[in-house]
Specification:
With 433 residues, the protein is α+β, with helices and mostly antiparallel strands. It folds into 2 domains: 31-48 and 333-432, D-Ala-D-Ala carboxypeptidase, C-terminal domain (Peptidoglycan synthesis regulatory factor (PBP3), Domain 2, Sandwich), CATH 2.60.410.10; 74-250 and 260-325, DD-peptidase/beta-lactamase superfamily (Beta-lactamase, 3-Layer(aba) Sandwich). The chain has helices spanning 114-127, 140-143, 160-168, 173-184, 187-201, 223-236, 238-241, 262-265, 305-322, 416-429, and strands spanning 41-44, 86-91, 96-101, 135-137, 157-159, 248-251, 254-257, 269-277, 281-290, 293-302, 323-329, 334-341, 347-352, 356-361, 369-374, 378-379, 387-394, 400-407. A 7-stranded mixed β-sheet has the order 1-15-17-18-13-12-16, with no helix packed on it. The two termini are 17 Å apart.
Length: 433
């Protein structure tokens, strides 16, 4: 039988808002991927696009006048109205969804699909299977790609690092084909790999048919899936994510600007990717970080590059202005002290390896219920950093977010005499305790 203790140390505060998220909209976080122990001891603890060229007639201001009402915009299921056909904004640290508008509706990925191609390249680099100076040959198929291009030359060999910049900064369709053929032999085979890897990441409603997002029958994604991909890219490969923040690049004596205009107009923006198809409209996956807090936004179905830049910037500013994060535990904070069996110490602190935060509307204070779950007592020896259980944060909207618990200190085993004495006491006199 599990041993359960429930002690609430949280101070009474104003109740957490209950309408910022719909059930099941949270991104999968690392904490949610932890397995539940078979026998649990639970102890609730208190938290210690370039604009269009101007016409002869003066253009209207890019931003709406101060008196404009967001209620007049097409409504969203969660959050403010937006001109975007699909929209999804999430705080990945807390898995809180602040904006949701048809975010599970199928849409064309357009050039946002390149994020999956780039993710696989980052994966290959991290695994050591390729290097930044590895070179791939340019085929006739790659050289003949239309749309946005890097302008690679037929028969030349291009370094992986140049191809990364070509895909991210220049949105080169030709660069994507070079990568696909270099890694998988053919673009068709690579697209199958993209879809399979996407499903493994949690992109359950996405199918890729090519490496660039070029319009193709049967190719689709969702705003939520693109947000999942954005977060996994940022979280899994911070060493390589920096390429997404570069504003321009010159290749083959041709200088091109990054199509992500928010890199220049919205503070804290460091990625990711724009896209456009005739049927799907203008879209963008964006991420920005301010004061250590990151937001991810995906929009699609906008009417122009100018509208995409303006609307995406407006929504980002809204997300940072209207919501804030409250830290429940800092990285390394002790959540609970767990009993140790046959150890040199009777107890060991269990800590969180990353900050535990909750998102609330600006001005409100969070009061989540926090419960530590682990198998106990913990048998010695114990090694600092070993994952030993989870801490569950129960929010007022019904969601439960889990974070991994780690052993906070090394604990050696008792000596032989101490172990023998303890075991004799346990088996002969344990019924007295």
């Amino acid at each position: 039988m599990p041993v359960s203790f429930r002690i609430d140390r949280l101070r009474p505060v104003v109740a957490l808002f209950a309408a910022v998220v719909v059930a099941g909209t949270a991104l999968t976080t690392y904490a949610q991927q932890q397995e539940q122990p078979k026998r649990q001891q639970t102890q609730p603890q208190k938290p210690a696009a370039k604009p269009k060229a101007p016409s002869a007639t003066p253009a209207k201001p890019a931003t709406p006048p101060a008196a404009a009402k967001t209620e007049a915009l097409p409504p969203s299921q969660v959050g403010i109205g937006t001109l975007a056909r699909q929209a999804f904004m999430v705080d990945p640290q807390t898995s809180s969804v602040m904006l949701f508008k048809d975010a599970d509706q199928p849409m064309h990925p357009s050039s946002m699909a390149k994020m999956m191609t780039i993710y696989i390249v980052f994966e290959e680099l991290a695994a050591g299977r390729i290097k930044l100076d590895t070179r791939f040959r340019v085929s006739e198929r790659a050289r003949n790609m239309g749309g946005s291009r890097m302008f690679v030359e037929l028969g030349s060999e291009v370094a992986v690092e140049d191809l990364i910049k070509g895909m991210i900064i220049l949105s080169g369709n030709d660069a994507c084909v070079v990568v696909a053929e270099g890694l998988s032999g053919s673009e068709e085979s690579f697209a199958e790999r993209m879809t399979k890897r996407g499903r493994e990441l949690g992109m359950t409603k996405t199918v890729f048919k090519n490496a660039s997002g070029w319009p193709a029958d049967g190719q689709y994604t969702t705003a939520r899936d693109m947000a999942v991909l954005a977060w996994r890219t940022i979280d899994d490969y911070p060493k390589y994510y920096r390429y997404y923040a570069e504003t321009n690049w010159t290749y083959n004596n041709i200088k091109q600007e990054n199509r992500n205009r928010l890199l220049k107009i919205t503070a804290g923006t460091d990625g990711l990717k724009t896209g456009h198809t005739e049927e799907g409209g203008y879209g963008q996956a964006t991420s920005a970080v301010r004061d250590g807090r990151r937001l991810i936004l995906v929009v699609n179905g906008l009417a122009s590059m100018a509208e995409r830049a303006q609307e995406t910037s407006r929504l980002m500013e809204w997300g940072f202005r209207e919501f804030t994060n409250t830290t429940i535990f800092r990285a390394g904070d002790t959540v609970v002290e767990a009993p140790v069996w046959l150890g040199a110490q009777d107890k060991v602190p269990l800590v969180v390896g990353r900050a535990v935060q909750v998102t609330t509307p600006t001005g409100q204070t969070a009061s989540p219920r926090v419960v530590a779950r682990y198998d106990g007592p913990l048998p010695a020896p114990l090694v600092k950093g070993t994952k030993i259980g989870t801490v569950a944060v129960a929010l007022a909207d019904g969601r439960i977010i889990e974070y991994p618990l780690e052993v906070g200190a090394d604990v050696a085993r008792m000596g032989v005499i101490g172990r023998v004495t303890t075991m004799i006491q346990h088996y002969l006199f344990g019924w007295l305790s």
